[in-house]
Write a structure and sequence with these properties.
354 residues, mainly beta, Sulfite Oxidase, Chain A, domain 2, Immunoglobulin-like, 6-stranded mixed β-sheet, 5-stranded mixed β-sheet, 37% strand, globular
């Protein structure tokens, strides 16, 4: 199937079908430092595999001195590390682009932060013995399907240097509990700072390659492309973004907010996979002021912020934008790309004050 062209029209049946399978974080749940497992955003490309964990093995091969076949007990017996990591889908915000790329119709909610536990990938690679000439490490999941006519196992690769970062984990627990099926049980890759497509779930195979991996999810999908013919640049680190917790209470259908007049504390979270967050600005009707930053939770976790607003009766628009230590700031309007990747345009929340 050829990808349908972007549209200005209503949501398609195919988009609605994807939206019922996947889920975003309710923005009021930004109040939690650590997102409860049942509220964590979810994207499943194909089907959730049914895996017999007692028979499951992780194979490690390719350009290595010795191939490995590791059981879950083998992996759990290895050195253990826990990290608080914010994950965001690369397509977060896609549905707000004009024209709208046809895919999972994310608005702003495809982000969450969890406590992940696993073993460093570097130790497994060392035990396998990476041979000279290796340029990439490919990670293959058990999920299999067809995307735009290409049948494949879901797989992504990292350069050898990126794969050998000490923060990269083979994760088997989320928030202190074994991974649930939808989150990649029994084992998934965790690459802090990178968009969610990198964190391969239902991991079954790791291979050391002597040439660049040319799989669909690496060379066709997850690229910043101007049009279908453009090879584009790879999607990698998470761009800075801030989101606010919608204040007051919502209308059921429109989710528009109503707030009582007077002092209102606006709170939210900000994050970047490129560099630490150093500034958040809160906007009221297009006038920007600095928010107060909370203490960092960790190098790869979102950061709390707050702003005091003296709400006056009438219609208002609240917004927020983040800047990281590398100088990257959210745009008010997002440059368009055909896959709808990395859209970190500022959030706007209409509010009625009464």
């Amino acid at each position: 199937m050829i990808a349908p062209p972007p549209t200005e029209g209503p949501l398609t049946i195919e988009e609605l079908q994807l939206a019922t399978r996947n889920r975003g974080l309710p923005l009021e749940a930004l109040c939690y430092d650590v997102t409860p497992g049942g509220l964590h955003y979810l994207l499943v490309h194909f089907d959730i595999p049914a895996i017999d964990q007692s028979a499951w093995r992780l194979s490690v091969g390719g350009n290595v001195r010795r191939a490995l076949a590791l059981s879950l007990d083998d992996i759990r017996a290895r050195p253990r590390r826990t990290a608080l990591v914010t994950l965001e889908c690369a397509g977060n915000g896609r549905a707000r682009l004009h024209p709208r790329p046809i895919s999972q119709p994310w608005l702003n909610e495809a982000v969450s932060t969890a406590e992940w536990t696993g073993t460093p990938l570097t130790g497994v690679l060392e035990d396998a013995g990476i041979e000279p000439g290796t340029v990439e490490i490919v990670f293959v999941g058990a999920d299999h399907g067809i995307e735009k006519g290409c049948e494949h196992d879901y797989a992504r690769s990292l350069s050898l240097d990126d794969a050998q970062r000490s923060q990269v984990l083979l994760a088997y627990e989320m928030n202190g509990r074994p991974l649930e099926p939808q989150h990649g049980a029994p084992l998934r890759l965790l690459v802090p700072g990178w968009y969610g497509m990198t964190h391969v779930k239902w991991l079954v195979r790791i291979e050391a390659l002597t040439e660049a991996f040319e799989g669909y999810q690496q060379t066709v999908a997850y690229r910043y492309k101007r049009d279908a013919e453009d090879r584009g640049d790879p999607v990698q680190g998470i761009r800075p973004r801030a989101l606010l917790i919608p204040p007051g209470f919502p209308d059921f259908l429109t989710r528009s907010r109503t707030v009582a007049r007077g002092r209102v504390e606006i709170r939210g979270r900000a994050w970047s996979g490129i560099a630490p967050i150093v500034r958040v600005e809160a906007g009221v009707d297009g006038i920007w002021r600095d928010a107060v930053l909370g203490e960092p939770l960790g190098p790869f976790a979102w950061r709390a912020w707050s702003f005091g607003w003296d709400a006056t009766p009438g219609e208002h628009v609240l917004s927020c934008r983040a800047t990281d230590a590398a100088g990257n700031a959210q745009p008010v309007e997002q440059p368009w790309n055909i896959q709808g990747m990395g859209n970190n345009a500022v959030q706007t929340v209409p509010v009625t004050v009464r």
